[in-house]
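Ticket #325: bound-state structure for coenzyme A.
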Amino acid sequence: MNAKVLGLGRALPNRAVENIELEGVVETSDAWIRERTGIERRHLSTGETTTDLATEAARRALEDSGLAPEDLDLIIVATMTPDYFMPATACLVQKNIGAHRAACFDLSAACSGFVYGLSVAHHFIRSGGSQNVLVIGAETLSRSVDWTDRTTCVIFADGAGAMVLGASTDEGVIRCTLGARGDDQNILSTKAPGLQNFLLAGKPLEDDPGPYMKMDGQTVFRFSTKIVGESIRETLKGTGYSLGDLDWVVPHQANTRIVDYAASRLKLDRSKFFMNVQTTGNTSAASIPIALAEMKEKDVLHSGDLVMLTGFGGGLTWGSALIRF
Ligand code: COA
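RESOLUTION: The complex was predicted; output attached.
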């Protein structure tokens, strides 16, 4: 059986924050943020938790799918900002939506998390282990950034997106490929408050990395512009499809300049890349399903479209998925 996309949903916090409002928080400017990232505004939580946003996106995706909560047999939440280490966000969502039959776990692969979760769902359905799977990407990154660090706090944001997949004989998820390079773990990281130092030394060390996200922006930029093209080409291999067959590429919404470079390296029409980072900011694992749900709402994503999803981020990790909608 194939994993067919049955429904999509998204949830953003009500509070939209314009670039200009950040000028009062760190030394930055609307012009700098627009030029270097493409971002114009983002949504930031005013108390909504990762679970709240994940639950709302899940409800909308379920409604869109026509399935009942008890039809789900697996819930995967991709997040790097879970509300708790334990229980998993997926368990909290299960309770909120009443999906009592579903097994639940969270998955940590940073901004590639949604594609990793989708790949797991695809393999569960193909193997017959699951019939209907809910995959959610959800983040409250405003809790994770250092609001005195202008190199990160102007980029990241909050939100959730969800996808319901069901077993089908129709073409659905065609191929997923994933990758990681742990050697580059420090390029983009959020180290829990001294956890590893505490384990090693029995007590916190002086060079405790602190609780906030840290990013070497230029290295991430170079990595991302290269890996997007490589990952897309790798995923098309052996499928019988080529770049020219794609109706859409939906990349992780990190930065418009990364996508401009990737599109020109691939020699692929830039208008095939859907972008909404301008209004959402970078919502990490949530960004791809938020984009897909927005495309469906705007009626630009149609049944039968051939779509490539591609994610990249901390770990370093990356992954792409070729899907017939
Ligand atoms: N506002 C204003 N100026 C800023 C700034 C901000 N928010 N952040 C950094 N600057 C300054 C720097 O201090 C530097 O000043 P200097 O020239 O006086 O030293 C200048 O802008 C250029 O900094 P630099 O780091 O070279 O900028 P950049 O062109 O590399 O752009 C990023 C920075 C972060 C936008 C860019 O590296 C990038 O997009 N990286 C990828 C980030 C990403 O997508 N991460 C998520 C991946 S999942």
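RESOLUTION NOTES: The two ends are 15 Å apart (CA to CA).
TICKET STATUS: resolved
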